[in-house]
Design a protein that fits this description.
It is built from eleven helices and 15 strands. The chain is an alpha/beta fold and 361 residues long. The mean pLDDT is 97. The structure holds 6-O-phosphono-beta-D-fructofuranose.
Length: 361
C-alpha cells in the first residue's frame, strides 16, 4: 500500500479544449487533501507498456501556463480498445489484464478518467473486470454525452466556429457569395446549432433534422430577392446525410473512417439551385485545438474538483455532470446509455426558427 493515498488520472478519446484545466483542478484538489496523483500517459496505452508510462503530478507543474493550453499534457488515444486490441499480425487480443495489473502496480486507489461515451464504456468495463474504483469526467467538443448539459470542450468549439462565421461574413459580402461552413460534432448538431445562432447563419443543417435542398434554395433566394442581401451563411454539421440518406465520410490511411465532406455536397447543390457562387470551409480539428475559453475553464475546474470529492466520499462508478448551473454526479452506466443529441423541442431549435433561420425542413 502506498504511504499516501494515491489516485490516477488519464485523458482518453479525442482531445478537446479544457483537458489541461481539468487535470489542473484535480491535481490542486487532490494535493490539498494530502494525496498523490499520477498522470497516466496516452490514456490506457500508458498502462499497457512496461515500464508503465506515467508522471507524478504536482501543484507547481500547473502554476503557470498549462491550464491555458489546448490539447492534453498527458496525451490521449482514440484507438486500441483493450478488450479487442489490434495486433500487428491483424488479429485482436484481450489486453485488459495488463491494464488492470498496471493500476495495481501503481497502487492507485481510484482512477479519474476524462473521456467521451466510448472511452467511459471501455473504462467502466475495465473497472468492473479489475475491481478498481473509477470516476469519470465528460469531455467532448460534440457535447453528446448523456445526462450532462455540458461536456468539457464544447463551449470552446462553439466559440471557434462562431469566430469562423465572423470571418466568413465579410468575405461573403465582398464577393456576393454563399459561404458554407462544415463543423464536426459526430451525430449531434449541438456545435452547428449554437455557433449558427451566435454567428448569424441563415441556414443551419444538423443530423437530427432532415432537410430538403428546395427549402434551403428557397431561403437563399428570399435573402436576395426579398431582403436585398447579396450573401448568405450556411452551417452544416458533419453527420448530415445527403438527400438520399448517405453519410459523407473520409477514409484515412489505415482504414479508419471519419465524417467529412458533406459541406461540399450542400455547397454544390446550393450553387446549382440558386446560381449563387458558393465556397466551402471545413473547420475539422481546428475546433479542438484552441486554448479553452472561460466557460470551459470554469466547467473544467468544477468537474475536476467534484471528481476528487467523489473519490474522497468513496462514491465510485459515477460521472460528474452539469445540471442547472451546478455540478452533480450520475451513474456512468446511465450517461453511456443516453446519447445526448439535439431534441426537436430544444430551446435553441425554437430560437433558431424564431430568428428566421432555415433548419432545412
Ligand atoms: O468526437 C470528437 C470528434 O472530433 C468528432 O467531432 C469527429 O467526428 C471525430 O472526433 C474525429 O476523430 P479523429 O480525431 O479520429 O479524426
Amino acid at each position: 500500500m502506498a504511504e499516501k493515498k494515491r489516485i490516477g488520472i488519464l485523458t482518453s478519446g479525442g482531445d478537446c479544449a479544457g483537458l489541461n484545466a481539468v487535470i489542473r483542478a484535480a491535481v490542486f484538489a487532490a494535493v490539498s487533501r494530502g494525496w498523490e496523483i499520477y498522470g497516466i500517459e496516452d490514456g490506457t496505452a500508458g498502462l499497457l507498456d512496461r515500464p508503465i508510462r506515467y508522471q507524478k503530478l504536482t501543484r507547481e507543474m500547473f502554476d503557470t501556463t498549462i491550464m491555458r493550453l489546448g490539447g492534453t499534457i498527458l496525451g490521449t488515444t482514440n484507438k486500441g480498445n483493450p478488450f479487442k486490441f489490434p495486433m500487428p499480425d491483424g488479429t485482436f487480443k484481450d489486453r485488459t489484464q495488463e491494464i488492470i495489473d498496471g493500476i495495481k502496480e501503481l497502487e492507485l486507489e481510484a482512477v479519474i478518467a476524462i473521456g467521451g461515451d466510448g472511452s467511459m464504456d471501455i473504462l467502466r468495463g475495465l473497472a468492473k473486470r479489475g475491481g478498481f474504483n473509477l470516476v469519470t469526467i465528460p469531455k467532448t467538443m460534440d457535447n453528446d454525452v448523456g445526462k450532462t448539459e455540458i461536456s468539457v470542450g464544447f463551449e470552446t468549439a462553439v466559440h471557434v466556429a462562431t469566430e469562423a462565421l465572423d470571418r466568413l461574413q465579410p468575405t461573403a459580402a465582398s464577393h456576393d457569395r454563399v459561404m458554407v461552413l462544415e463543423v464536426m460534432g459526430r451525430d449531434a448538431g449541438h456545435v452547428a446549432l449554437a455557433a449558427g445562432i451566435a454567428g448569424g447563419a441563415d441556414v443551419i443543417l444538423i443530423p437530427e433534422i432532415s432537410y430538403s435542398t428546395d427549402k434551403i434554395a428557397e431561403k437563399i433566394m428570399s435573402i436576395r430577392e426579398q431582403e436585398g442581401r447579396n450573401f448568405a451563411l450556411v452551417v452544416v454539421s458533419e453527420a448530415v446525410k445527403t438527400e438520399t440518406g448517405g453519410a459523407r465520410q473520409v477514409e484515412h490511411y489505415g482504414g479508419k473512417k471519419t465524417y467529412g465532406g458533406i459541406g461540399y455536397y450542400i455547397g454544390d447543390l446550393i450553387a446549382e439551385k440558386t446560381g449563387f457562387e458558393t465556397r466551402v470551409t471545413v473547420l475539422g480539428h481546428v475546433l479542438r485545438g484552441s486554448s479553452p475559453i472561460h466557460q470551459d475553464r470554469i466547467v473544467a475546474a468544477a468537474f475536476g474538483v467534484h471528481a476528487v470529492d467523489l473519490v474522497a466520499q468513496g462514491k465510485f462508478d459515477r460521472m460528474v455532470a452539469w445540471s442547472n448551473r451546478s455540478v452533480i454526479d450520475v451513474p456512468i452506466e446511465e450517461a453511456i446509455a443516453s446519447y445526448h443529441a439535439v431534441n426537436q423541442d430544444d430551446a435553441l431549435v425554437h430560437t433558431a426558427r424564431a430568428l428566421g433561420i432555415c433548419l432545412g425542413d
